[in-house]
Amino acid sequence: METSGGIQASLSGRYATALFELARDDAANPRAIDAVEASLGRVRAALDQSADFAALTTNPLLSRINAGKGVAAAADVIDVDGTTKKFLGVLAQNRRLAELPAIIRSFRALAANHRGETTAEIVSAHPLTDDQVDALKDQLRARVGRDVAVDLSVDPSLLGGLVVKIGSQMIDSSIKTRLNTLAHAMKG
């Protein structure tokens, strides 16, 4: 696990590492890492799809107790595992719910590394189909030389194409970037 200047260097990375270690060391559930990762995926989807849930995680006026109650109720609705539910409660108590997106990204990177995979952050203009994701994983696997876990997000401002980030490499084939490049070239 990378500790010097890597994931653990950030606040969200330290929380993600703590959650990962809790899941990894859970003797009662050998598949706890997968269960937590799946639960965090549902939390990420809830953040993206529910403005109310997103507001709950970022509202500084909400007391710690009310934030904790709200997150516990949401956790029951989106069906997260017990470890993740307790973790969300800790985040609410420590006023760190706004860090959830970064914590989820860091946890996914830790879990992928644990499985011997590398993680690619993929931003597309439109949601990708399962077949497109599988084809993209195959192409990235051929390029990187090992299995690739993908972290998908959508940014309609790209207009079309993809932005793929693997480690320090970034592949930007978005129409937005191409149009900006063309505009700069035309200015001379």
CATH superfamily of the largest domain: N-terminal domain of the delta subunit of the F1F0-ATP synthase
Beta fraction: 5-15%
Strand order of the largest sheet: 2-1-3-4
Shape: globular
- For the termini, the CA-CA separation is 47 Å
Which CATH architecture of the largest domain is right?
Orthogonal Bundle
> Main sheet, how many strands, which sense, barrel?
4 strands, mixed
Helix content: 55-70%
What is the count of helical runs?
A: 8
In the predicted model, the low-confidence regions spanning at least 5 consecutive residues are 1-5
Structural class: alpha+beta
Average residue-wise pLDDT: 89
Might you state the CATH topology name of the largest domain? Peroxidase, domain 1
